[in-house]
Amino acid sequence: MRIPFISLFMTSPFDGLQEHAEKVKECAWAFQQAIECHITDQCEAFEEFRLNVDKMESEADSIKRRIRGHLPKGTLMPVDKFQLFRYLREQDKVLDAVEEALDWLSFRSEPGIPEALEKDFFLLVDAVMDPVEEMCRLVLETRKYFRSYSEKQRKIIKDIVHTMRRQEHDADKVEDAIKEKLLNMQIEAITVFHMIRLAETIGSIADHAENAGDMVRAMIAR
Amino acid sequence: MAWNIGANDVANSMASAVGAKAITIRQAVFIAGILNVLGAVFIGSHVTNTIRKGIVSTDIMTDPQVALIGALSALLAAALWVSFATWKSLPVSTTHSIVGAMIGFGIMAGGFAVINWSKLTAVVLSWVISPVFSLVIAFVMFKIIVKLILVKEETFVKALKLSPAFIGLAVFIIVLSFLFKTPLGKKMAIDSWAALLVAFIFATLLGYAGRVLLHRFIPMDDNSSAEEVFRKIQIGTSCYVALAQGANDVANAIGPLAVIYFLVKTGGVGAQVPVPAFLLLFGGIGIACGISMAGYRVMDTIGTKITTLTNTRGFSVDFAAASTVLLASKFGLPVSTTHAAVGGVLGVGLAGGIEAVNFRIVFQIMIYWVLTVPAAAATSMIIFKILQLIV
What we know:
The structure holds 2 protein chains of 2 kinds.
Chain A: H1 4-7, H2 13-40, H3 46-69, E1 75-76, H4 81-107, H5 118-148, H6 151-183, H7 189-219
Chain B: H1 2-19, H2 25-43, H3 45-54, H4 64-87, H5 94-110, H6 117-150, H7 155-181, H8 183-188, H9 192-217, H10 226-266, H11 277-305, H12 311-330, H13 337-350, E1 357-358, H14 361-390
């Protein structure tokens, strides 16, 4: 406090956002491996992956709380505080959805995913991974934009947001295809319910990533 | 006292340059030291008079005995208060400490009547005006840079193209301050319009010369951006802030000392005490010593802690701070460079140039600004009484 000049500057919330986004990406990768492991049947490590995701989720939660708890009133930022919080919420929901999907799957591990749907679920998981990875890049590029304010950088961000929207749409289509198949299969009703809920939860990962992208678009609006 | 100024206030002039990585810490310490001495010796004397006689009426100075004790107690009180503040890590302004100490001694020696209240009001006003003014300039400056340069496709080319305007603007202000503030400028006795004209010519010439130099020194490749251009310009503006600071702050340390010196030498004191150049040099060297000894640590803290300040931001802050200090000195207000620098950072922050700025810190700083004057005054009173008993 001796030098007021220094105490004016505080730790940037963007540091935390980036850290959080990295965590989300890590979790998503673990999630992908977990699902693949579950489907291939030969893998014993599903439970391990699931616990790992749980652990990372709570780490990400503490990052989230750190960001929220360290933005006192009267902090000047290039973006509105609540835009930042809304963004963070969406980014965090991605993670929650990842965790929930794995938990939901673990509640009824037998018989698991029906053979006829294995390929579709692979597709769905791949489809939701894309926007999550884009989201991680988005944080980085947004930070660069607020440093340079250049039109070129703004364009890059807009392109990423567009890509995310398209990817979310693709994931939706895969999700719908799974649901349609499920409802027309001659299997136990409880399995149908289990699988539909699973597909919806996995699909929501992409939804939240898209919402996060939309929040960034709002941040850079002029 | 001078040492304290050097150790603490150097942050104001060089912080943005170091924070923006325009210069290294070693260079900053070196440049700030030299320029503070230069500023103190060549521009300083004018301000010294203002502080000494502005707030406390000279009537009490007629008795040499009282004046001597008073000046001594004021110097001691200010030094004590600033040292205490440094020890307690409080952000106080050295300028206001000395103002407060002078007031304290004035009240003790001649009662409340000797205080020039309108001057004091001006000082209080400057607490508000100087940060606000600096804030506005920095805000506008940064917005202009964003609108004219950063938004464009070819930022580097654009920045280079407009660089004469920015260099010119900075030069304009520097030349004006030399003409209006220095004894040298006064001797030439140029009236305001002529001064403006001279400054304008200098600004135009140096602006274009600057662009030629920039062209030569910055390699034209794909990585170069507008920041590169401002990095070079910023070295110049930081130098100016250091210069202005030397001129402005040397008065704090030397003002009372000048009175003592004059009394001892002539046995009386007039309405105006000419400040001998060697005293100014002494003060300047004192500041430089403070910078070289403690400045390094301060700069280091700044360099590691302030990472979000880029060159365009740093330029805006420097420009705003320098202009504010110049303008305030023109009106004879003892402004603090700290206030101006803080205002500049807030201005850029409001314009969205910095990832996170703590606005509320201003209110905390403000409390210490307000506290400084009475605290220094009280200390000065006590010392005055003690000295009176002894002598």
